[in-house]
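Ticket #4471: structure output looks truncated?

Reporter: J.K.
Steps to reproduce: submitted the chain below (414 residues) through the standard prediction queue, then opened the result file.
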Amino acid sequence: MSTHTFSRRTVLKGAAALSCSSLVLPGVTAPAAAQGQSGPLTLSAAEGSLPEIAGQGSIALFNQALPGPLLRVKKGSPLAVSVQNGLRQNLGLVWQGVRTTAGTDPSAPQVAAGGQANIAFTPRDAGTFWYHAADPALARRALAGALVVDEDGPAAYESDQVLFIQSFPPETGLPLFPVNGAISPTLQGPASGRARLRLINATPLFLRVSVDAPATYVIAVDGQPAEPFAPKDSRVQIAPGGRVDLAVTMDGANPSTLSIESSQGPVQLAIIVPVGPGGTAPSGPPAPLPSNGLPAELPLADAARFAFKIEPGSTPASLGSVSLGSVKVGRVVVLTLDNPLDTPLSVRIDGHPVRLLDANYDGWSPWWHDTVPVPAKGSARVAFKAETAGTWSIIAQRPGDNAQVAARTYQVTA
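Returned output as attached by the reporter:
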């Protein structure tokens, strides 16, 4: 089967072309190749132009770049950002998947049109996260960037690449999928070694990404370390807003490729070329990443149980202030997400990473999520331990345009 490469004339035909499963539609994002920042950094939102990717007309950008700057700090180190809003509308920021040491929500401040605000927080977890405009219409286009929180100590991988995947419909209506702001970029990995690839799905679409490499292991999901495992057929599925970290074994001579799967065949996202001296490639799974201290067990017998029925036709403005309930710090919560709609949804759960439970019993998948896919006319159940006091949001979004279908909050009290 041939591999399609992106150009303005050879693109997918939209979400229907990526009907890999009932929960898999198109979309992929890759982070910009900006230098990491350890000190205060300015994020300046303003209108700009990207005719080769976004078509004619203006588009909102951070720092006139696609994507916005890559922010990088060590676990436990403070992050300070000055947000300057040059747009004609208020700007809110979401720091997806980020837990803070103080228990405060860094997504809360709204920056008035023409205004400025300072945001400072200390990420609690090492991992792959991202920031984006709270307005889905701005976020799904370009107003977004990656946040990488590095583990303590030396880097676990010789090569550590962020792939920030975005999607743009040109004038033809057929989407383009830039990675780090480029179409099918070439990145580097160690010859006969392993490269860490941080995939961030900044599109409003469900993805299935395949990796052509000697061996591939999933090492983290939605920013949280996972016991390394080899995905079936070297394919991973990523919900809108989700992230997957891969350890990819490189061939000493041949490049590796990442592609979106579609009904028309694979669509190339990026090429990873081997560099440096060859040798014997590592075998078997890599060592797990250091834990972020999430609980190994979730006792569900005495859990608080909440249900979020995602009502069709409801507006987030009317639902965002409606609470599902309140729990004390330390209690386990089981949350049922019920989707009566004809389309799958992506549900973002702020404040706490969650485990996806089995549909029929209280077993769980061995990894954590902050973004959960819910099938059309179906449901999903998740569980988490309430550890951080505050009021947190749960937002259901529709694939294709990331429109907020419904929202709720939940409270955690000390």
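Triage note (M.O.): checked the attachment and the full token line is present. The chain is about 5% helix and 45% strand.
Status: closed, working as intended.
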